Amino acid sequence: xxxxxxxxxxxxxxxxxxxxxxxxxxxxxxxxxxxxxxxxxxxxxxxxxxxxxxxxxxxxxxxxxxxxxxxxxxxxxxxxxxxxxxxxxxxxxxxxxxxxxxxxxxxxxxxxxxxxxxxxxxxxxxxxxxxxxxxxxxxxxxxxxxxxxxxxxxxxxxxxxxxxxxxxxxxxxxxxxxxxxxxxxxxxxxxxxxxxxxxxxxxxxxxxxxxxxxxxxxxxxxxxxxxxxxxxxxxxxxxxxxxxxxxxxxxxxxxxxxxxxxxxxxxxxxxxxxxxxxxxxxxx
Length: 284
Prior knowledge:
By secondary structure, this protein is mostly helical. The protein has one domain (11-48, 66-279). The protein contains 12 helices and no strands. The chain has helices at 15-23, 26-49, 65-69, 73-84, 87-98, 102-106, 110-113, 120-154, 169-185, 188-200, 204-222, 253-279. The longest helix has 35 residues, at 120-154. It starts with 14 loop residues before the first helix and ends in a 5-residue tail after the last helix. 37% of the residues are buried.
C-alpha cells in the first residue's frame, strides 16, 4: 500500500495555502493589477480624446456607446464591461487556468507536490478552485473600480440605455453585478478547456494559447451565418449574453442559454481533465 493510501497520511492541500502561493507569483499579481487598472486607463483615454463631436450630417450618431459612456457613472461602468467582456477576459482566464498544473510541471515542482502526498484529484480541485476565486475576484474588482471611477468622473447616475431610459442607480448597480456574474458564467468553457490543456501539456504558455486559439476560431465560425443553428454548440456563441442586463427590457433567455452552455462544456472538459490527470505520468 502506498503512502497516499494509508489512513492519516494523505495531505489535504489547504485552499488558503494554495491561494497564498498563487498570490505570491508575479504573473497572478500582474493579471489582477491589469483588471483593476483597466477602468482608469479607459477614463484617461476618454479624457484625452474628449467628448465626441457631431456634425449636422451625423446627428444620428450622437448616441454612440462612447458618447453615452460619459453620460453617467453607471453608463461608464457598463461601457467598461462591454469593452472587456470578450477577448481580454478570455485571455486572463486562459492564463490563470493554463498555469495551474502545467506551470508546476514546467518548474519541476509538480512531482514534489504529489509526494506530500496529495491525491491528484484533490490537487486539481484545489487549483481549479483557487483559479476560479482569483478570476471572480478580478472580475468583481474590475466592475467595482469601473463604477467608482465612473461615479467620481461623471456623477451618480444610472445606466443610460441607448435609445431608451436612464435606469436608477440602485437598479444599475444590481444589473452590473448580474452582468459580471453572467460574464463569469460565459467563461466556464474556458475554465474547462484550460483545465484540460494544463494537465495534458507541460507548458503553461501552450495551455493558455490553446484556450485563446479556440476562442478565436469559435468567434470566427460564429460570424458565419450560413452555419445556422450549428453555431449554438460553439463555446463563445453566447459570449454577449451579459449585455442583456445593460439594456431595457431584459431578455433572460440568452442568459440561461449561456449558463447552460458553459456548464455543459465545463463538465465535459473537466471530467476529461480529471480522468487524464489521474493517469498522467509525472515521474519525470
